[in-house]
Structures are given as structure tokens and as C-alpha cells.
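Appendix B, record 7
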Amino acid sequence: MESMNEFGCLDQTSAPTEDELRQLAKSERRAINLSNAINLILFVGKVVASIETVSMAVIASTLDSLLDLLSGFILWFTAHAMKKPNKYSYPIGKRRMQPVGIVVFASVMGCLGFQVLIESGRELITQEHQEFDTRKELWMVGSMSSVAVVKFFLMLYCRTFKNEIVRAYAQDHFFDVITNSVGLVCALLAVRFKWWMDPVGAILIALYTITTWARTVLENVGALIGRTAPAEYLTKLTYLIWNHREEIRHIDTVRAYTFGTHYFVEVDVVLPGDMPLSQAHDIGETLQEKLEQLPEVERAFVHVDFEFTHRPEHKADV
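C-alpha cells (predicted):
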């Protein structure tokens, strides 16, 4: 029993206060706004660099910055929508807006990858390429290296948050560090050695884009369709339920599954058959409130019964 208390999620005293939650929300908004502002500034600089160099690797990086702005708007819209609950139109809240927004974000990034892949392949087939001079090379090195450095520090800042939307920005900043570094190296190799290294670098960036964001889509779709919680988390819930009240005779069912970024929990407990309805109701209600205080739980449903030998009460196959 003592070992179970080592898990932080059962320690109710560790829950953040209202002031801490407000401060955290303010910091998250600051991170999102800062990311959007810097994305806009860097995009303008990379547009100029693309016009000056006409390098496929630089253009691919510029298109990525454009999609950063579009995707940033999508994520901002989801965060804004979640702050305005409507219990009549959305009875269980809008937490699903986060993974849905991230899926849209990832889909847009995947489209970028396919477009760059097609254009780079066309350049390799037709063997069309631009000649570089010292001025173009300086533009390319200055813009790409500056973006990589700024994005690296933004990535470190956004990774300090647990909010899914802010962490999506962190992943995007990390992606920008990789793409700008690869793009810069390939463009410089194209200038110094072979011209075809520029479109090859753009193809590498495109493949990385498609792979990274396809993985992101699969993770968030899994959260939306209702993936079960890990066995150790179910064990924690069972421990918490069993020690809630001594009148609980059996625990029939404990389920926890994702429904967005948090868990829905379903619990069936068995109480004495002769217990007054008011007392049974109070036990079930307080257990539900206790479960919903856990930071990972969005909604808990507690069903009280007097026996556990009955058939399943829901559809056998769902």
C-alpha cells in the first residue's frame, strides 16, 4: 500500500492552485504569441532570401515558414475556442479542439512536404538550376543560420510547458532547426560542388516533413479514438477507489481511456444491498469528485450496484 503512494497522481495536495493555473495559462499564451510574432519576422526575411538566391532548399524552408504562420493561426484558434465553453452546444467541453487542431496542423505540414518533393523532382529531371554568386551566398548563409539559432532557443522555451498546443510549437521549432540546417548545408554544397545537391537537400527536407507529421497525426488520432490508459495508471485508480470508503465491497469495473488529451474514467462499485439510497448516492458522488480532481482525468462516471454477477449492461461490441 505504501508503494502506491509514491505515485504523484494520487497526491491530492500536489494539485496546482487557481493562481498557479492562471499564471500557467498566461505563460502559455505568451509562448504562443512569441512564436507567432517571430515566425512572421523570420518569414519576411526568408522571402527576401528566396528571391535573392532562388535556391530550392531555401524556398522549401520559406514555404515551411509560411505554413508555420498558417498552422499557428489554426492552433491559436483552437486555444481561443477552448477558452469559451458552451455547455449547451458542447456539453462535455472543447478539450478535443487541441488534438483536432494538431491533426490539421500536421496535415498542412504534410502537404508542404509533398509539394516540395514534386518541385525538387522536376528540377532534377529538367536539370534546371540557378547560378550563385557571393552576394546570393551571403544572403543564404545569413538568413538560414539566423533562423536556425532563433528557432533553437524558441524550441527550448516552448518545451518547458506541458500544454499540447505549446509543445506542438516546440516540435515545429525543432523541425525548423533541422530543415534550416540541412537546407543550408545542401545549398552550400550545391554552390561549392554539384548543383543537384540543392534539390536533393529539398527532397530530404520534404521526406523528413512527411515522416514527422505523419507520426504526429497517428498519435493524436489514437488519443481521439479512445486508447486505454496504461496498466499502472489503472492500478492507481483501483487503489484510490478501493480506499475511498470502507462500505465498498467489490470493484466491478475500472476503465480509463483517452478522449482527447485527458482520460474519461468509468467505474462500477458494489455496495451493500440494504444501504439507503441517499448514502449510496453520496459515496458515488464523492468518489466521482475525487477522481475528477486527478490532473489526467477530464470526466469520471461512477455506477453504484448491489451485486456484480450480472451480464454486461452496455452493448457487448462497440
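Remarks on this record: The first helix runs from residue 18 to 53. The CA atoms of residues 52 and 282 lie 72 Å apart.
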